[in-house]
Design a protein that fits this description.
Blueprint: H1 19-54, H2 56-95, H3 108-133, H4 139-170, H5 175-182, H6 185-211, H7 215-239
């Protein structure tokens, strides 16, 4: 589960350049905007995962979180992801002048519900992968999980469904307007692909690092990373005003 800073609704003006040229040009612009936060994200994830294996008090704290996760299962997944992926970033956005008018207070329900459902979805993904590939930390297991995550789950459902729902919000929750946007093949061939490419480049290190953790910790750490990423983008966007 991931996201990059890119508009999901309005296709670029009808650019008549070849498809691959359009994609590489726009993806390059998006990647350039996300490069610095992406590098910071990777350092953050590596630091969190490394601290679990090298610093005993942090390991003990994370193990307690893992026990709570095991006790409450999908309820923990929904509530924690709604909090870290939805509510906290939303409140941070509302506190920033740049977003105050762009993010109506009434939309908080949307983000809380969306990320609550996504939390259960990602938890299910992690559990299914543990059954398919095992819970080992060897190269083959990590590679199998990362490839399935990034090349199957993300394009076929994870990022695609999130982009569609975000488009619905940006269309004022109008199904007819959303249908009009999605009926434009440029949304699928250009806009969606422009989100996919930077996602693969920026998030692959974070995904591998998360799969290095025990199964019960993968979702909690994913939520921590997601929250950090969202807040980082908000503050860096403020700096660019």
């Amino acid at each position: 589960m991931s996201e990059v800073a890119v508009d999901t609704v309005v296709p670029q003006d009808l650019d008549q350049r070849p498809w691959i040229t359009r994609i590489l040009s726009r993806a390059g612009d998006v990647l350039k905007r996300n490069l610095v936060p992406g590098l910071i994200l990777q350092v953050f994830v590596i630091a969190v995962v490394s601290s679990y294996y090298t610093i005993e008090p942090i390991k003990a704290m994370f193990d307690e979180v893992a026990q709570i996760k095991l006790s409450y299962g999908f309820t923990f997944s929904a509530i924690s992801t709604a909090l870290f992926g939805g509510l906290i970033p939303f409140l941070v956005q509302k506190s920033r002048p740049k977003y105050r008018k762009l993010m109506p207070t009434s939309h908080v329900w949307f983000f809380v519900i969306l990320w609550g459902l996504k939390g259960m979805e990602v938890d299910l993904l992690y559990r299914c992968q543990a059954m398919m590939f095992g819970e080992g930390k060897d190269f083959v297991t990590l590679l199998s999980k990362t490839v399935f995550d990034q090349l199957v789950y993300v394009p076929l459902w994870g990022l695609t469904s999130c982009a569609i729902v975000m488009t619905w919000r940006q269309c004022g929750f109008s199904f007819s307007r959303t249908k009009t946007v999605l009926s434009n093949k440029r949304w699928w061939t250009d806009n969606l692909m422009v989100m996919m490419l930077p996602n693969w480049l920026i998030w692959v290190v974070a995904v591998v690092a998360i799969y290095c953790l025990p199964l019960a910790l993968q979702l909690p750490v994913q939520n921590l990373v997601l929250c950090f990423w969202c807040i980082l983008l908000i503050f860096l966007a403020d700096e660019s005003m």
